[in-house]
Amino acid sequence: MRSRAATRPWEFAWRRTSRGIEPTPDGRPRGVEHLTEAAKRVLDANWREGQRADGVPYAFTCPATPRYRHQWYWDSCFHAIVWRHFEPARARAELRTLLRAGRLDGFIPHTAFWDWPARWRRAPFYGTHTMFGCSATATIQTPLLALAWELVAELSPDDPGFATEALPALRLHYDWLDRERDPDRDGLLTIILPDESGLDDSPKYDGVFGWMRHYRPGHVWLVERHRRLGYDAGKIAERYEEHVEDVLVNVFYALALRALSRLDDEHGGVYAQRAARTEATLLERCLDQRTGLFLDLAGRGERRVAVSTWSALAPLALTGLPVGVRRRLVEEQLLDPRRYRAEVGIPSVSQDDPSFEPGFSLWRCWRGPSWVNIAWLLVPAMRELGYQEEADRIVGSLARAATRYGYREYYNPRTGRGLAARGFGISTLLVDLLRQAQTEPSVAPPMMHL
Ligand code: GLC
């Protein structure tokens, strides 16, 4: 049974949150405070709580209505990271719900459907055990739960037990990933569907998944093939070429393992060792010395995928990697206007890559536009390395775009235009970025090219 409160008030709320953030009466865009309030309104409107028919309670933020109605793993982690600034109790409830969506063996799904079963049109594309009737997918998404747990615990003085209450479950989760998703035991997790990274249609997967890539008709066959093998990554990696040791997934995996090691006094050492192994393998196997980019390893031959997407820059966030390697990512990529230095945010694909498309596409995402979680991962690392001015510029540009267009799924990196879903939860990460900025970025005057 869904509680009444969970359904009614939000049915039409997306209309309210879909507009840009209203300018002041004299036409000037509003400031940071207003962006913060608007973020809270988005998360509020997308909040769902109740009880599934089998009695299991849930409380989470759906990414955006009406398009994204379920609970997505990485979206939920990002939402909780923002909720902790407003209502830490909701942040904690969201992460606890995510754990509850998992299995006793430590598996946690990419998507939990709760009271909103997958619609027939999309059901064939979900990595579920049967096409209909499942409560969640049998696939994973970029596993940052322990990192989100630590960040929420830091702002939970009212619930000091939160930091450690889930350690057994978190250990099980990361043990499951290590056991089931690292078939060649090199410290890198393997993904078996493109959307397991969260970067569904990234051009880096075009050559790997070919006619079976995300949202192509062949994708339905790929899902069916996985079903027949019970989503067993070991069997899939042994028999087929369509699987990836993904840089972004493994960067977040290493960050989460580090967080778990800090949370867990007793067993922390094991997870710190695993994190170090993942970082070392990224450095050894994925770093392309010629370009300084970190490239995915695809298929049984572990061939490097030479497409420049933001995932190739993600190791910048790993503070344990050599400073020279990290600085090179900033100097040669993020500061280069031909590559990742854009008018607005950080583009998801290098502007000099032939696949780069800055605008909206109905079926494809992550092919060029700027998403706020890209900046959320990379900007703090830029600050840490001393690139304050550039970090402020990036955050300020996103703040102006959000002021003008509201919290949209992504933004055109050249014009700042807000695109795709409206009232999109992940984009409220801007609030977290604004709180880290030492000076309040100016949200006026409006961008030149809007
Ligand atoms: C899209 C995004 C993915 C996100 C999901 C729900 O599929 O590509 O990253 O998790 O929407 O918001």
Please, could you describe this protein's structure?
- The structure is a single chain.
- By secondary structure, this protein is mainly alpha-helical.
- It has one domain (26-449): Glycosyltransferase.
- The protein has helices at 4-7, 13-17, 32-46, 73-86, 88-100, 145-154, 162-165, 167-180, 206-209, 218-228, 233-239, 247-263, 268-286, 323-334, 372-384, 388-405, 430-436, and strands at residues 47-51, 57-61, 71-72, 111-112, 190-191, 244-245, 297-298, 303-304, 410-411, 418-419.
- Strand 7 and strand 8 form a beta hairpin.
- The protein is globular and about 50 Å long.
- The N and C termini lie far apart (46 Å).
- The structure holds alpha-D-glucopyranose.
- Give the strand line-up of the largest sheet: 5-6-7-8
Q: How many strand elements?
A: 10
Please give the radius of gyration in angstroms.
Answer: 21 Å
Kindly name the structural category.
Answer: mainly alpha
Residues in β-strands, percent: 5-15%
The CATH architecture is: Alpha/alpha barrel
Global mean pLDDT: 91
